[in-house]
Amino acid sequence: MLGLMRRVSISGSIPTSMLQQSLQRILPGLAILERGYSTLGKEMTVREALNSALDEEMSADPKVFLMGEEVGEYQGAYKITKGLLEKYGPERVLDTPITEAGFTGIGVGAAYYGLRPVVEFMTFNFSMQAIDHIINSAAKMNYMSAGNISVPIVFRGPNGAAAGVSSQHSQCYGAWYAHVPGLKVLSPYSSEDARGLLKAAIRDPDPVVFLENEILYGQSFPISDEVLDSSFCLPIGKAKIEREGKDVTITAFSKMVGYALQAAEVLSKEGISAEVINLRSLRPLDRAAINASVRKTTRLVTVEEGFPQHGIGAEICASVVEESFEYLDAPVERIAGADVPMPYAANLERLAVPQVDNIVNAVKRACFRSVPVAAAA
Amino acid sequence: MAGRLAGSRAARELARRMGFMGSFRAGLSNVGGGPSLPVEICRRDAGGVSPCISSRVTARPGGEFPRGKVAFVAEMEFLAELLKERINCYRVLDDDGRTISGSSFKEVSKEMALEMYSGMVTLQTMDTIFYEAQRQGRISFYLTTIGEEAINIASAAALTMDDVVFPQYREPGILLWRGFTLQEFANQCFGNKYDYGKGRQMPIHYGSNKLNYFTVSSPIATQIPHAVGAAYSLKMEGKQACAVTYFGDGGTSEGDFHAALNFAAVMEVPVIFFCRNNGWAISTPTSEQFRSDGAVVRGQAYGIRSIRIDGNDALAVYSAVHAAREMAISESRPILIEALTYRVGHHSTSDDSTKYRPVHEIEHWRTARDPISRYRKWVQRNGWWSDENETELRKNVKKELMNAIQISERAEKPPLSELFTDVYDVPTSNLREQEALLRQTIQRHREDYPPDVPL
Asked: Which domain holds residue B254?
């Protein structure tokens, strides 16, 4: 409360109707969506970003190789590995038999002995068939071997909901993998994220789980020359402030970043300035950035597509309550997918995942602009 | 036109599958019409241990399907679930330690023979004493290799230091052969600060980068695909070495076994799959584990050259592994060895096998079928060993072990700093914070911190 009162508006007008409704002085949000992006006008889809990152890393290091179902001849189930078999040959782009447990175990074994595999899961839902190798053979091995056996492997593929693919193809595994010490877990949103984080993941000596999103593959983002350079790399463990704001912190990752940005746009028209944090890294989680933002805004809404219980938002809320409690002016709130296996029918599916409206409503509740959900019952 | 193309494609397929050890004559099929393809394929055996396989496909009606030509038959015949006779078992020495006449095997020098023998005795003594130490409460857990000493030592002797080993957990003899000392074994079991594992793992989870022995990992059969991955690495490197992985009869039920074998055959990698079929997976006998004729036929089912051997015959184990290694490396192919044996000890110190199997059966295998005494007879008949040598060896090994245990027991445990290292290559900020917080707490409550845990 106090923090808000001390803030002074230095630019922009203040709609008088707002003042009547609350004690806070809400500043209109500045449109900084384009910040960080080049004005040169180059664009790149996330698919192209991932493909170029794989290509460049394979070119730079002969130990990097790809494995997965359909990654070679078929050019990749989602065309992410297009052209790579032709360029690097069958020894470096392996089409595997249908056995996630098998090829993940084999990839881990190759990493034990010094190669740098990039293992593709057609969707992370299928990674459950290989999860023993990801956790027991990869994540824990450096620790169990007291640093003697490192596992420089990357597990990548689409994660979370797509469109009309139902429950066994739509689960988000962010919380599952981010739970495990020994793994690093990344989830890109934009093309810049995709390039920088995948390159970082491949270069990292620890096992990395790289959670992509099928819907984002085809989405285009503006991209700067710096990002296009083959040495471009983003740091693991650092979140990005996609949009600066003053009234509320919204955290999100992957596709939900786009939704959060849309929500911020809607909110700005109503005089609420939302700060959108693109987490980029689920483990390690950039608690410093999140807490610094919440100490500034005093309100938090976390957004994720996955199931609510024990999710990413739960960890973020706990971290903020532990470290920034006295700064909070409202209860923390989580927006997550519905606590049901994902249904198929388009109308039901829409109801089962967060929409921009849900984020807007949550922010308003956090700003005491609407009645809390519980009180309405 | 179509016929000729079919013939040459099928011929190329066959050639690729048989590899360059096979000799192969293919007649190009006739133009159009008859689909016959006179082809004779004979796989020359290596080391005199595998039979020649030949197949002759002559003028029978047949047809092309993906993967090639098959002959058609009018009778509907199901392949029996089991062959009339079980696959034969290769052995060199009889139960009394005499070489079976006509047996072919890789000769060993006196020096090598004695090194193998003393390795087997050391392994057996080490197991007995560590087992006792667990019973006395000095270590928390142990598992023995009793009855499988020939498998452990003889297979290790047939490999080179460049061959990478992926063990299950009943193969410490390979480490012993390669030079891991009794003190090093004891340090791991006691989890002291000299343990190469920094006290991270339970006893018997040994590992050594230097000796090319990958750290033991508890989940069953996960090491099998790991070995295939490492073999792929070796193949890409062009190294004159292979990967070797060990597992029990129980391990062959895991999904990893099937995926790994299938994959290895398709990828054509230099790996030896060594199955220790010792009859028991804790309390599950092999009759309840699978219904195939053991593991050897399963190797064949995946297109892998396989052999069944007498695992309690040191010379048979040595010869088979020697030959397998040569084939695996020179032909870049997987090989499966199924060694029949018996798990004389309990599964581990957490098990009492007398509860599920008759004591007389255990005793029979411990005495009449003991691999060490059988090999000893052969070594002694060669004039290379005496009873005095035996007493001397056992006395020395026991003394060295008791000493090692005492030293290990008294040594300090790993320091607190090792709690947080190696989770990642470089500790992340949250780990650094946790350690700082913990040390602060220790400072404030010094008197509550255990005195025997160094910082």
From this structure: 110-410
Catalytically annotated residue among A169, A315, A333, A349? A169
Q: Are residues B341 and B430 in the same domain?
A: no
Report the domain count for chain B.
Answer: 2
Residues B380 and B441 in one domain: no
DSSP H/E element including A366 = helix A356-366
pLDDT, tens only, A93-144: 999 988 999 999 999 999 999 999 999 999 999 999 999 999 999 999 999 9
Instruction: Report how far residue B190's alpha carbon sits from residue B171's, in angstroms, rounded to the nearest whole number.
Output: 19
Other CB atoms within 10 Å distance of the CB of residue B446: 7
Tens digits of per-residue pLDDT, A126-137? 999 999 999 999
Give me the mean pLDDT over the A356-371 stretch: 90
Q: Which of A197, A228, A259 is the last residue of a domain?
A: A228
Residues of B labelled as active-site residues: 132, 218, 347-348
B84 within domain boundaries: no
Q: Cβ distance B139 to B189 under 8 Å?
A: yes
Q: Do A115 and B262 touch (CB under 8 A)?
A: no
Which is nearest to B226 in space by CA: B174, B165, B180? B165
Q: Which residues of A touch B166 (CB under 8 A)?
A: 109
Give the CA dihedral B6, B9, B15, B16, nearest 10 degrees.
-140
Per-residue pLDDT tens digits for B233-292: 999 999 999 999 999 999 999 999 999 999 999 999 999 999 999 999 999 999 999 999
Other beta carbons within 10 Å of B21: 15
Instruction: Give which of B173, B192, B195, B193 is closest to B184, Cα–Cα.
Output: B195
Q: Is residue B330 part of a domain?
A: yes
CATH number of A175's domain: 3.40.50.970
Of A69, A100, A275, A333, which is the active-site residue?
Answer: A100
Residues A220 and A119 in one domain: yes
The kind and range of the H/E element at A365 are helix A356-366
Q: Which residues of B touch A106 (CB under 8 A)?
A: 225-226, 228-229, 232, 259-260, 263
Q: What is the CATH number of the domain that holds A267?
A: 3.40.50.920
Q: Give domain status of residue B95, yes or no.
A: no
Per-residue pLDDT tens digits for B64-78: 999 899 999 999 999
pLDDT for A55 equals 98
Q: Classify residue B90: in a domain, yes or no.
A: no
CB proximity A89 to B under 8 Å = no
A216 against B22, higher pLDDT: A216
ipTM: 0.79
**B187 contact residues in A (CB cutoff 8 A):** none
